[in-house]
C-alpha cells in the first residue's frame, strides 16, 4: 500500500487537532457573549436589569 503513512497523520489530526480547534472556537464564541439570548451578557454574579430571575 503506497499510502501506509496516512493513519499516522490522520489519527492525531482527527483525535487531537480538530477537537482542540473546535473547543477553542467554542470558548471564544461563548466568552464574547454572543451565545446569550438578547445579545448582551452580564458578568458572573450579576443579573441584567431586564432579567426576570433572581440570583440567590
Written overview of the protein:
The model has no long low-confidence stretch (mean pLDDT 79). The longest helix is centred in the first third of the chain and has 26 residues. The protein has a domain of 27 residues. With 56 residues, the protein is mostly helical. It is rod-shaped and about 65 Å long. It has one helix and no strands. The protein starts with 5 loop residues before the first helix and ends in a 25-residue tail after the last helix.
How far is the first residue's CA from the last residue's CA? 64 Å
The value of Rg in angstroms is 20 Å
How many beta-strand segments?
0
Assembly category: single chain
**Mean pLDDT level:** 79
Residue runs with pLDDT of under 50 for 5 or more positions: none
Backbone shape? rod-shaped
Q: Secondary-structure element order, as H and E? A: H
| Helix-strand makeup class | mainly alpha
Number of helices: 1
Estimate the strand proportion: under 5%
Keywords for this structure?
rod-shaped; about 55 residues; single chain; mainly alpha
Short recap of the structure:
This protein is an all-alpha fold and 56 residues long. 46% of the residues lie in helices and 0% in strands. The protein has one helix spanning 6-31.
Task: Indicate the topology.
Elements: H1 6-31
Amino acid at each position: 500500500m503506497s499510502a501506509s503513512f496516512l493513519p499516522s497523520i490522520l489519527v492525531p489530526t482527527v483525535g487531537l487537532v480538530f477537537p482542540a480547534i473546535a473547543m477553542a472556537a467554542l470558548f471564544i464564541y461563548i466568552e464574547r457573549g454572543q451565545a446569550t439570548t438578547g445579545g448582551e451578557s452580564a458578568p458572573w454574579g450579576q443579573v441584567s436589569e431586564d432579567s426576570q430571575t433572581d440570583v440567590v
